[in-house]
Amino acid sequence: MPVFEFEQSLGQLEKRKGGYFFLKIEAQIIAQFEKKRHTRLVCEIDDIVKYSCGLNHLGDGNYFIIVATKYLKTLKKELGDVVHFKIYEDPNPLGVAIPEVLQALIAQDEVVKNRFEQYSDGKKRSLIYTIHKVKNIDLQVQKVYKFLEENK
Fold first, then answer.
1. Is the pLDDT of residue 95 over 80?
2. Upper half-sphere CA count for residue 99 (Cβ side, 13 Å)
3. Nearest-CA neighbor of 52 among 34, 39, 69?
4. Average confidence (pLDDT) over 3-23
5. End-to-end CA distance of the chain
6. Is the pLDDT of residue 75 over 90?
7. What phi, psi does 22 have (nearest 5°)?
8. Which of 18, 62, 131, 133 has its CA 20 to 30 A from that of 147?
9. What is the percentage of the chain residues whose pLDDT exceeds 70?
10. Using CA atoms, how far apart are residues 145 and 101, in angstroms rounded to an integer?
11. Per-domain boundaries in the chain
12. Has residue 1 got a pLDDT over 80?
């Protein structure tokens, strides 16, 4: 699994494009990954922050990864500051852990299992994030079935 290391200053998109802080990744780097632009990555910045991320089009043929404001605070960095970062393919294609409640439903309910397996990785992540927002297990189960019903 290739690891790419860079040093660059933090950029920020125009407000009309979201205003996100970002790190630019050249197209020729992304071309080296098997899934190209659909690759989930792990980004490590200054050996302090490590997170799973996806790629976004920059609009000039290159890509970028978003750096959340909470990570900038942890790093004590701001727009224009130089960071050292490395990226590599995320060994977990979803980029997030499957919650226990969903694992149990997949193991016990054939319909849940079949539907979940048919979803794209992005749709699976959406379901997982929906579950993570709720702390009550009964409500998590309800959210799973509601999501499956709405996303046939």
1. no
2. 21
3. 39
4. 90
5. 35
6. yes
7. -150, 165
8. 18
9. 99
10. 12
11. 3-89, 100-150
12. no
Chain centroid to CA 7: 21
Cα separation of 37 and 27, whole Å?
A: 9
Give the angle 142-144-112 at the CA atoms, nearest 5°.
120
- Residues near 16 by beta carbon (within 8 Å), at least 6 away in sequence: none
What homologous superfamily is domain 3-89 in, according to CATH? Answer: AF2212/PG0164-like (2.40.30.100)
Asked whether the predicted pLDDT for residue 116 surpasses 80, the reply is: yes
Residue 140 makes CB contacts below 8 A (sequence gap 6+) with: 99, 101, 102, 131, 134
Rounded Cα gap, residues 44 and 5, in angstroms: 9
Q: CA-to-CA distance for 7 and 13, rounded, in angstroms?
A: 19
